[in-house]
Amino acid sequence: MARLARLYAPDTPQLIQVRFHRALASAHEPTPSATLDSLAAWFRDAALEERVPVHGWTLLNDRLVLLGSPADKSAMSRMMQAFGRRFAARILKGRAFSERYRSALLQPGAWVLPGLVWLEHLPVQQGYVDEAGRWPWSSAAQHTGQEAPGSRWTSEHSDYWHLGNTPFERQARYRRLLEQGPSQSQAKQIEGALFGQWALGDAQFLERIGRESTRRLVPAKRGRPRKEVPTS
């Protein structure tokens, strides 16, 4: 079966997930803090080198998840390749990822914030911590006002800015969203789009970006096309 072409549309946020070829540690082992620190630094460097505005990210023992808006259709691939090369050469000494990264396009104004909450809530959902802002290897502390001064390198999406007129308002409102986590319905739709590598949004959004996207945005309907009944 042929692989799907990379899905891209100009000025459209992409949710990305890539799983590592080998987990950094098992659930019963200590958190590999030094390794995660290195991975976070290499990911930051790759994003800055390829000029990919990253709106949010989370590193776990087995994957990297991020939300960004690449400037062109190959920028995200170049960033992931640069990150993977460092990872493979300096830690795994071989293959970095278990498969190609998966991606989904998210509609601004509807799915960017749910996507951001979903990825930053993963450390809680996976049992790493009981509060997302306490996981050092993500952008959650930045969005909730818990980050160390001068540590910010990401680029906030306009949907985050619209949460309030001041940093305090934005952080407080986002903190409440993150504490709640994504709804079951939201998580199911986000994970379905990400696993299938589709776009997530309403009909108007899909129609608009469909004119500029690199391929089909949603799965084809199952079954054979209906035959037209000839009229006499």
Structure commentary:
A five-stranded mixed sheet has the order 2-3-1-4-5, with helices on both faces. Strand 2 (54-59) and strand 3 (63-68) form a beta hairpin. The chain is globular, with a radius of gyration of 19 Å. The protein has one domain: 2-Layer Sandwich (Alpha-Beta Plaits). Helix content is 40%, strand content 11%. It has nine helices and five strands. With 232 residues, the protein is α+β, with helices and mostly antiparallel strands.
The sequence of SSEs as H and E is EHEEHEHHHHHHEH
pLDDT averaged residue by residue: 89
Radius of gyration: 19 Å
Shape: globular
| Overall tally of domains | 1
Helix content: 25-40%
Low-confidence stretches: none
Summarize the entry for a quick read.
The protein is α+β, with helices and mostly antiparallel strands. The chain is built from 9 helices and 5 strands, in the order βαββαβααααααβα.
Helices and strands in order, then pairings?
Elements: E1 14-19, H1 33-49, E2 54-59, E3 63-68, H2 75-92, E4 102-106, H3 112-120, H4 122-125, H5 140-144, H6 158-161, H7 167-180, H8 184-196, E5 199-200, H9 203-210
Parallel strand pairs: 4-5
Antiparallel strand pairs: 1-3, 1-4, 2-3
Name the features.
232 residues; alpha+beta; Alpha-Beta Plaits; 40% helix
